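Notes from hallway chat w/ T.B., transcribed later so I don't forget. T.B. wanted the structure written out for a chain they're using in a teaching module, and asked if we could keep both sequence and structure tokens in one place. Agreed to drop them here.
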Amino acid sequence: MQQVRNNYIDGAWRPAEHCSESYNPSDTSELIGRYAIAGTADVRDAVEAARKAFADWKETSPQQRFDILDRAADKIAGRTQDLATLLSREEGKTLPEAAAEVTKAAHTFKYFAGEAVRLAGSSLRSVRKAVDVDVRREAVGVVGLITPWNFPFSIPAWKSAPALAYGNCVILKPSELTNAIAWELASILHDAGIPRGVFQMLMGGGDVGAALVSNRDVDAVSFTGSGAVGAMIAAQVVGRGAKLQLELGGKNPLVVADDADLDKAVDAAVRGAFYSTGQRCTASSRIIVDATVHDGFVERLVERTARLRVGHALDSASDIGPLVSAAQLQRVSRYAEAAPSDGARHAFGGRVLAAPANGYYFEPAIFLDGTMHQNINREEVFGPIVSVFKASDFEDAVRLANATEFGLSAGIFTSSHAKARAFIRASNSGMVMVNLPTVGSDYHVPFGGRGASAYGPKEMGLGAIEFFTQTKTAYIAD
């Protein structure tokens, strides 16, 4: 029997009365590991340890924080292959995608190690004589991070790294579907020399997350996940004055203009809609194509999709791995089955696949005649299903792109500089891609959406400082 991996609390690995087991979604006969389930007492102890540690951690030198984060980055980079393999086995994304995620996590820790020593304020002259003004940034305090299963290594990294760089204490609650890779991050930070109580990890389900966000000694909460859970967290956190950051998903449009390079547009649509098995909040779920090129685009899209190979995440021949769980497979299948009765015209795929092993395999699906009355276009499916819309002209395409409560990522393929700039100006999304898939982001610039896709300051890059620090203005007279 495999050893139970324990929660990380106050610098030590603490066992629990109960544990959970995780299995490989590519082959459900393979046990990945057994993981301790935190209880309410563990949450309380973690918060108390973080509160105690904060007094010293916020006063540590920027160099000390740099050194710890830089060591963590090096340890991640040095273990890219084995971490990527574990990530693929646990979550189901292909090995190249998993390796890219691990590499991004290493880069993120490197970047924020540098930000620890670049944290700056400003000095100004007061409007009053003989008075100076200093504006400085300080840590917020104890931060609860609740992270999803679809990017189970990079999202904990891009939340934890800036929080620690700016002097906060972190309590991470990863998705219960991906405890293994989150446990490795905690182990790496422990080995990198993180002080007791500064970083902690609690594994378990929604009750653990609820206990964390409801604790009044948690000063800030950052959550990535569903809108429904985000709303429940907001109801608890905002009312007590804690800081809140939510990233909640999207229904991301990719516009294909009449002057687009269709081969490049099709490639971007396939990568954006189907890679990572469509389990990305930035996935291209709505493809809006100008009527003059619609039929040619659809023909190429179906042909390209039919060539995709769905298989075991560790098989080098696989383009797409399985969905993450039985529940996710059932959810995505329901959307595919219901789409034709909702007015969508089936063009390709949408079947549950039995091969190649006991896994949660689903054939990528394409539906035509898209409208915003259809559930697959109003709700986030979070699977490899795409809906193609026919737009009468550029203005109609922009209207359709914005016809959603979500506003995370949007893209356009065009050879016209004027159309590209017009789309950037008109888009209601927080991120806009030109001649690129709607997926993919850089660690040194803000990430996040608008509307139903987000709440609070953006993540990553220059956006992270707004959430993980607070300003203090000091007036100094002679």
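Follow-up for T.B.: The first strand starts at residue 4 and ends at 5. Might be a good example for the class.
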